[in-house]
Specification:
The complex is a heterodimer of chains A (390) and B (63). Chain A is mostly helical. Chain A is built from 16 helices and two strands. A two-stranded antiparallel sheet of chain A has the order 1-2. The longest helix of chain A has 27 residues. Chain A is globular. Classes of the chains: A mainly alpha (390), B mainly beta (63). At the A-B interface, helix 8 and helix 9 of A face loops of B. The complex binds zinc ion (ZN).
């Protein structure tokens, strides 16, 4: 196994082996999961295979997280530059980009050429929607990097879920405003995921457009032009999706609408759980304090972290947004989730269960310690929350 | 030809290392060469990491 070593000036040797190195290849399996359903259906002619991808994600996902447990290993800080330079990790993120295209197109061809039952159509479409929601995760990892190839790959992969504005919205909007009431991508205590989605989806689009609009105005170039980095990605989406409608006809309309919606829904789900209720304090100068590690929820579960490029080590990501996934660290005493994202998504879809599990956890955080004024609360839920916990 | 010593400064994000070089400006962000750091909007945030504000930036030692 590859070992990183560094000998310091005083002769001390520091070394590190990434025990997850090989396992990071799981991130290449993730985009391909819907193809298992298509392949099974093709070979056995049994449509029940189309249900398998969703089961893999939402039954096996939480089960594997529970089974394989958590991982609290961190690379030594002095070896992080070597780890970041190791191209192996970068290549994995590059490779997931074509894999998302392959899966999306194969499933589209399958839906376009087979006469599936309504439930076969629905389960396969939702599954590929979820899989391409994780294309947003790939776009997230790539979009934070400063090399041209990585930012372009981010725009290309974000075209699959039709979410080209994500890159700008997330980097320039969400990271700036995270854990404040003005962030449409940070959920509030007492806000259900269904209410949050109606604020988050339009809010994200609006913020991305405003940020890009401002930048293009400063540059003095037209907003409706190829300089617009939101439109660049949308253009690829249009070619892709109009092409599919032209090739396979009307059936592509419900397919694409559902696919796009469920991809967006994956991001909504992630945003919902990542900062629930957390609030940055207001400083004397009226600005919010800088984002601290305790302004994000974390999960250290091995399996889901391998599929998601360490996205769940979210505190370190927000404190150091340009750090590469392989170097993100676990810290003690941070807001932590009882399960990985797959399990947490399911809990979030049942709001009363979510509130029951997360509200006490939120109130018990050391920096909050039951003080409701230190929580980002949904104004409409305020009265009810103060009555219950105040 | 004599090269002029640039009076322009370089301002570094303490979080991620992004540098705003006044001599070059930042073309992508729409700030032309020579655009002074002090002229940047008050709500300027680091273009690379977005988690450090204008007042967090440190001027590089000209030497
Ligand atoms: Zn920065």
């Amino acid at each position: 196994m590859h070992q990183y070593t560094l000998t310091s000036a005083d002769g001390q040797v520091e070394s590190y082996t990434d025990h997850k190195r090989f396992w990071w290849m799981l991130s290449l399996v993730n985009p391909l999961i819907p193809l298992l359903g298509v392949g099974g259906h093709l070979i056995s002619a049994n449509e029940l295979w189309l249900v398998v991808p969703l089961l893999l994600m939402f039954v096996l996902g939480p089960l594997f997280d529970w089974l394989f447990g958590e991982d609290e290993n961190n690379p030594p800080e002095v070896l992080v530059p070597q780890l970041e330079e190791d191209r192996y990790y970068r290549i994995l993120t590059y490779l997931t980009v074509p894999l998302h295209y392959i899966t999306f197109l194969c499933v589209a061809v399958w839906v376009g050429t087979q006469s599936l039952s309504w439930w076969g159509f629905l389960t396969l479409t939702v599954a590929v929607g979820f899989a391409d929601g994780f294309a947003i995760n790939t776009g997230h990892e790539l979009g934070h990097k400063r090399t041209k190839i990585e930012t372009w790959l981010a725009k290309i992969v974000l075209a699959v879920p039709a979410y080209g504005h994500f890159w700008i919205e997330h980097n320039r909007g969400h990271h700036r405003d995270v854990a404040t009431p003005q962030d449409p991508a940070s959920s509030r205590m007492g806000e259900s995921i269904y209410k949050f989605a109606r604020r988050e989806i339009p809010g994200a689009f609006h913020r991305a457009w405003m940020i890009e609009h401002e930048r293009l105005c400063r540059k003095g170039v037209p907003v409706w032009s190829l300089h617009n980095e939101v439109l660049q990605s949308y253009l690829i989406t249009i070619v892709l999706q109009v092409g599919l409608i032209a090739a396979f006809g009307w059936i592509m309309l419900p397919f694409l609408l559902l696919h796009n919606f469920f991809s967006w829904w994956v991001l909504t789900s992630a945003n919902y759980i990542e900062h629930y209720g957390l609030l940055r304090a207001t400083q004397a100068d009226g600005k919010f304090e800088r984002c601290q590690p305790h302004h994000s929820w974390n999960a250290n579960h091995k399996y889901s972290n391998l599929l998601l490029f360490h996205l769940q080590r979210h505190s370190d990501h927000h404190a150091n947004p340009t750090r590469r996934y392989q170097s993100l660290r676990h810290f003690e005493d941070l807001p932590s989730l009882p399960s990985g994202y797959y399990g947490m998504y399911i809990i979030a879809y049942f709001p009363s269960l979510w509130f029951k599990m997360l509200d006490p956890r939120l109130l018990a955080l050391p920096h909050i310690n039951g003080d409701l004024s230190k929580i980002n609360i949904d104004p409409e839920a305020k009265q009810h929350i103060y009555a219950k916990y105040g | 030809m004599l090269s002029m010593v640039s009076p322009m400064g370089r301002f570094r994000c303490p979080g991620c290392g992004y540098v705003y070089d006044e001599a070059q400006g930042d073309d992508h962000e729409g700030y032309p060469p020579g655009f002074a750091f002090t002229q940047l909007p008050a709500d300027f945030v680091c273009p690379d990491c977005s988690v450090r504000y204008k007042e967090d930036f440190l001027q590089d030692d000209p030497a």
